[in-house]
Design a protein that fits this description.
The chain is mainly α and 162 residues long. It folds into two domains: 2-55, no CATH class; 64-158, no CATH class. The chain is 83% helix and 0% strand. The chain is built from five helices and no strands. Helix 1 crosses helix 2 (23-35) and helix 2 crosses helix 3. The longest helix is centred in the middle third of the chain and has 55 residues, at 64-118.
Length: 162
C-alpha cells in the first residue's frame, strides 16, 4: 500500500507541473509531502531541474534573424506573384457575367431560333440557356484547380512552414 501512495504522489508531482491539480489532489499531495521525505526530496529536485531549464541559455545561430527575414521576404514575393492572377481571374469572371447579362436576350433568341429550326423541346433549350450562365463559374473552377495543382508541384523549400 505504501508503494502505491509513493507512486501516486510522484504522479501528482509531475501532473502538478504540467496541467495542474484539483483541490482535493493538491491537499492530499501537500499532506503527503509533509510526511514523506522521499517524495518531498523528489518534488524539490523536480523544482530545481525546472528552474535550471528556465534559466539555461540556449545558443542560436548568429544569422537566424537574417535567415528569418529572407524567408519572410521570399514568402511575401510568392504571395505577390499570385495576387495579380487572382485579380485577373475575378476581373475576367466579372466581365463574363456582365457580357452574359447584356447578351442574354440575344442568346435566348438564338436558342429559340435553334429550337424552331431543329424542333428541339423547350426543356432542352432552357437547359442549354442555363448552361450558358454557368460557363464563367466553370472557367473559374478550372483555373483555380489548375493553380492548386501547380502549387502542389512546388519544391518543399518553397512551401510555407507551419
Amino acid at each position: 500500500m505504501s508503494e502505491n501512495l509513493h507512486e501516486r504522489a510522484l504522479q501528482l508531482v509531475a501532473k502538478a507541473r504540467v496541467e495542474g491539480l484539483a483541490d482535493s489532489e493538491r491537499e492530499w499531495l501537500t499532506v503527503h509531502l509533509q510526511d514523506c521525505d522521499f517524495c518531498n526530496e523528489h518534488a524539490q529536485q523536480i523544482d530545481c531541474a525546472l528552474r535550471s531549464l528556465r534559466t539555461a541559455a540556449i545558443p542560436v545561430p548568429a544569422d537566424l534573424a537574417s535567415r528569418t527575414q529572407f524567408r519572410v521576404r521570399l514568402r511575401a514575393m510568392e504571395l505577390r506573384e499570385r495576387e495579380p492572377k487572382r485579380r485577373m481571374l475575378w476581373l475576367a469572371c466579372a466581365a463574363s457575367w456582365i457580357f452574359g447579362i447584356a447578351s442574354a436576350p440575344y442568346v435566348w433568341r438564338i436558342f429559340e431560333w435553334f429550337g424552331h429550326v431543329t424542333g428541339a423541346p423547350k426543356l432542352l433549350l432552357e437547359i442549354g440557356f442555363g448552361l450558358w450562365w454557368t460557363i464563367p463559374a466553370l472557367f473559374a473552377v478550372i483555373v483555380l484547380l489548375l493553380e492548386s495543382a501547380r502549387q502542389t508541384e512546388e519544391p518543399e523549400w518553397m512551401k510555407p512552414s507551419r
